[in-house]
UniProtKB/TrEMBL annotation:
Name the record gives this protein: Aminopeptidase N
Keyword field: Aminopeptidase, Hydrolase, Metal-binding, Metalloprotease, Protease, Zinc
Source organism phylogeny: Bacteria, Pseudomonadati, Pseudomonadota, Betaproteobacteria, Burkholderiales
Catalysis: reaction(s): Release of an N-terminal amino acid, Xaa-|-Yaa- from a peptide, amide or arylamide. Xaa is preferably Ala, but may be most amino acids including Pro (slow action). When a terminal hydrophobic residue is followed by a prolyl residue, the two may be released as an intact Xaa-Pro dipeptide
Originating organism: Azohydromonas lata
Aminopeptidase N-like N-terminal domain mapped to chain residues: 19-183
Length: 886
């Protein structure tokens, strides 16, 4: 059944406070709950309906007396609660944590108890008004066996602890901040903590703790450093201090998502806590920093101010992603490192959100309806939501945005609000700004799905030294939205002279030029801007820094793109020019409209970047990467995944061959002997060295020269950090070198006891470029490997998501075996963990774009999943939308 945004009603009852007691046992945990309930005087008298799912109810008392109740569609209904304005309700129930394979609610992982309550997991623990606009003060008592579960944690402050008979113990926690149930958490496990005290500007001292399993403590330093940096940053940039005496992070091996911002007790996937140079790559280190920051920032944007209902999810997620992106940029140093971060964020947006926005699951940043809310923790809500916040910041300026944030907290601290409330606060703090004067139109970004295309054409009038830029926008239909109103699109831009210099920008009617970069606001279907005093035909550099989440058709010639690639002062557009040059060749070749080869001028331009004395290694590595097969596919009307793979591999081989000497030079020049640090500068060098090594091994595969695979193997053996070791291993595996097999066994032997490293071992094999069906066959074999399990989400993702999301040529097989495999795994996983299954189901979103025979076979596989009788609501929503005719 569909939940609709327009059906929102304020709660008829509120819960002011709750006392919870847990007697924790894996097979049967007893929960007793005492709720202080109030009627909402604005609501008509009506039954009290509490959510509850998979619970065994033992007792209900109202004001201490028994009361009649019934069960109706997953709700506990009390038709005649006490007539008083406020009353207490006491409930006893049990649940079964060890059978909870969905990992939502209270579950066991390893030898401990953990919770995940967002979005609707709390109702799987006890009966409650499990909706974010019901905020209560929690007091929680945990009782458990002391030897097995020495650490007992919940939100807030520890107020009491002690011994109980029978080898048990207890701990009592109190959280003074009223919170919605989705922010509740408890942990009972055998853990150890890294601790650090920190003094904030107010002079208050706070205790920071990172809890992990015994033996993992040496992998927590980076997480702790990231947490300290996050606390300092939020106070400096947004004047938002840590409001808790104690802030805890707990790592758990079985977790559906990245992490969860429970008030004062963040629970994390181990992947985003544990990092040591020997076991984690530079990318992993960066992931830890970014997720620790994200969850910490939620303490204000999400917890202090939360969402009125789940349609407003982007209120906290879009804003918090924006904040973690800004943090990561500030942490990475200079302008070039910031640009590299921005490029990576945009690549992510284009790889995940743009296809989502063009497919059957397309939805607005603030969706209008859902069947299963877990399906809406999407790239659109998170990443496009962050872009919407970023555009607001662009329109009101950095200081204006900080003022807007202050007003937002002044108005709404302690409340559950909507995306409208946020936008209104930013606008009201900046009267007369480019945002405020068109706020209603701007808010279409929240309401309309789809990625707009901006078309730009310029004409130069030499006689009048005038350049006229015409911008047009268009957005095609999305499910349920046949027609779109124009968006408000900030277009950051500049004009670049043929010699590469930046031209002063003087719009017609202006007395003097206003800098060399500015923001044009496109708000109509078509608009024109006239620039005066332009000496010669310029090259427009548009959408600098990717100032809006749109597709840009700039109509530039190759020669003009070459100018931008060589000279643009905006690093993002420099990178983008190279991407567009390569993309046009890839698309032409994939459609049989051009050779499966790069032309000499482009190869020379790429060589110039690789050889450039001043450019950073990280930037070079990004420029030299050809657009992914998935990105190319999005730009084709009809996709033959095998053909895309073939032409891209041919171009990669060409770069390996024609830049051979340059790769050797890059490999040697960027090799570093510095002590390992996960800095952008070092990581950039390692990334470029790894890329060079891959290209050199690829070339050896063709030439038969054994030197580079030999060197890669040596480097693999001698590596002192995981980034280098995995890079060398990838170079061998990806080039199908003979040495790949001994290297893979050695790697397994070395790391067989480290789950996160084993995930890499599985992923690497599933991501190798397909060769005669070998990679697909290997994935099928790995499914039976003793270390493989579908129960652990990280492990399942490492093999299945790597194949289906990141290895199109191994997955999309003419014999349909990939789709059969996909359908079987979706159904296997659905029986245990519907959320995870639904995520895997989504890899077929774009099946309609496929050429035959892929398309027909894909439809058949999806239909087979859809026909399964006991399918979860999660997967049902995905496959139903995938098959819907629009
Ligand atoms: N709020 C968490 C985060 O973004 C994500 C939790 C999502 N959980 C879920 N079951 N959908 O930090
Ligand atoms: Zn979040």
């Amino acid at each position: 059944t569909l939940v609709r945004r327009e059906d929102y009603l304020a709660p008829a009852y509120r819960i002011r406070s709750v006392e919870l007691c847990f007697d924790l046992e894996p097979a049967k945990t007893l929960v007793s709950s005492k709720l202080a309930i109030e009627r909402n005087p604005q609501a008509a008298p009506q039954p009290l309906r509490l959510h509850g799912e998979g619970l065994t109810l033992l007792r209900v008392l109202a004001n201490g007396e028994s009361v009649s109740f019934r069960h109706e569609d997953g709700q506990l209904v009390i038709d005649h609660p006490p007539a008083d304005e406020s009353f207490t309700l006491e409930i006893r129930n049990s649940c079964c944590p060890e059978k909870n394979t969905e990992l939502s609610g209270l579950y066991t992982s390893g030898s401990g108890f953990f919770t995940q309550c967002e979005a609707e997991g709390f109702r799987r623990i006890t009966y409650f008004l499990d909706r974010p606009d019901v905020m209560a003060v929690y007091t929680v008592t945990l009782r458990a066996d002391k030897a097995k579960y020495p650490v007992l944690l919940s939100n807030g402050n520890l107020v009491e602890q002690g011994e109980l008979p029978g080898g048990r113990h207890f701990a009592k926690w109190h959280d003074p901040f009223p919170k919605p149930s989705y922010l509740f958490a408890l942990v009972a496990a055998d853990l150890v903590a890294r601790e650090q005290k920190i003094r904030t500007r107010s002079g208050k001292e706070h205790l920071l703790q990172v809890f992990v399993r015994r033996g993992d403590l040496d992998k927590t330093e980076h997480a702790m450093n990231s947490l300290v940096a996050s606390v300092v940053w939020d106070e400096a940039r947004f004047k938002l201090p840590l409001d808790l005496e104690r802030f805890m992070i707990v790592a758990v091996e079985d977790f559906n998502m990245g992490a969860m911002e429970n008030k004062g007790l963040n629970i994390f996937n181990t992947k985003f806590v544990l990092a040591s140079p020997a076991t984690a790559t530079d990318v992993d280190f960066f992931g830890v920093e970014s997720v620790v920051a994200h969850e910490y920032f939620h303490n204000w944007t999400g917890n202090r101010i939360t969402c009125r209902d789940w349609f407003q999810l982007s209120l906290k997620e879009g804003l918090t992603v924006y904040r973690d992106q800004e943090f990561s940029m500030d942490m990475s140093g200079g302008a070039s490192a910031r640009a590299v971060r921005r490029i990576e964020d945009v690549r992510q947006l284009r790889a995940a959100q743009f296809p989502e926005d063009a497919g059957p699951m397309a939805h607005p940043v603030r969706p209008d309806s859902y069947a299963e809310i877990n399906n809406f923790y999407t790239a659109t809500v998170y990443d496009k939501g962050a872009e919407v916040v970023r555009m607001m910041a662009t329109l009101v300026g950095r200081e204006g945005f900080a003022n807007g944030m202050s007003l937002y907290f002044e108005r709404h601290d302690g409340q559950a609000v909507t995306c409208d409330d946020f936008a209104q606060a930013i606008a009201d703090a900046n009267p007369g700004s480019a945002l405020s004067v068109r706020l209603d139109a701007f808010k279409r970004w929240y309401a309309q799905a789809g990625t707009p295309t901006v078309t730009a054409r310029g004409t130069y009038d030499a006689e009048n030294r005038r350049y006229t830029l015409t911008l047009e926008q268009f957005c095609g239909p999305s499910p349920g939205q046949p027609f779109k109103f124009p968006f408000v699109i900030p277009v950051a831009m500049g004009l670049v002279a043929q010699d590469g210099s930046s031209l002063p920008l003087q719009l017609a009617g202006e007395e003097a030029p206003g800098g060399t970069s500015r923001v044009l606001v496109l708000e109509h279907p078509q608009q024109q801007w006239v620039f005066e005093n332009v000496d010669a035909a310029p090259v427009p550099s548009l959408l600098r820094g990717f100032s809006a989440p749109v597709n840009l058709d700039d109509g530039l010639s190759d020669a003009e793109r070459m100018v931008l690639l060589a000279h643009d002062s905006d690093a993002f557009n420099r990178w983008e020019s190279a991407q567009k040059l390569a993309l046009s060749r890839l698309c032409a070749a994939a459609q049989g409209l051009g050779p499966a080869a790069l032309d000499a001028p482009l190869v020379e331009a790429l060589r110039a970047v690789l050889r450039h004395p001043a450019l950073d290694a990280s930037f070079k590595e990004l420029v030299l990467q050809l657009p992914s097969e998935g990105y190319v596919a999005e730009h084709l009307p009809v996709v033959d995944p095998q053909r895309v793979h073939e032409v891209r591999e041919a171009m990669r081989a060409q770069l390996a061959e024609q830049l051979h000497a340059d790769w050797i030079e890059a490999f040697e020049r960027n090799a570093t002997n510095e002590a390992y640090a996960p800095t952008v500068a070092q990581a950039g060098k390692r990334a470029l060295v790894n890329m060079a090594l891959s290209m050199l091994c690829l070339q050896s595969q063709r030439s038969g020269d054994p030197v580079w695979p030999g060197r890669a193997y040596q480097r693999f053996k001698d590596a002192t950090n995981m980034t280098e070791r995995l890079g060398a291993l990838s170079a061998l595996v990806e080039s199908h070198a003979g040495l790949a097999e001994p290297a893979l066994s050695r790697f397994h032997e070395l790391f067989k006891d480290d789950a996160l490293v084993l995930d890499k071992w599985f992923a690497l094999q599933a991501r190798a470029p397909e060769l005669d069906g070998r990679v697909f066959a290997r994935v099928k074999a790995l499914l039976k490997h003793p270390d493989f399990s579908l129960r652990n989400p990280n492990r399942a993702r490492s093999l299945l998501f790597s194949l289906t999301m990141f290895n199109p040529a191994a997955f999309h097989r003419a014999d349909a075996a990939g789709y059969v495999f996909w359908a079987d795994r979706v159904m296997d996983i659905d029986a245990m963990n519907p959320q995870l299954a639904a995520r895997l189901a989504r890899v077929m979103d774009r099946w309609r774009k496929l050429a035959e025979p892929y398309r027909g076979a894909a439809r058949e596989a999806i239909a087979r999943v859809a026909a399964k009788p006991d399918l979860s609501g999660d997967v049902r929503e995905i496959v139903t939308r995938a098959l819907a005719e629009d």
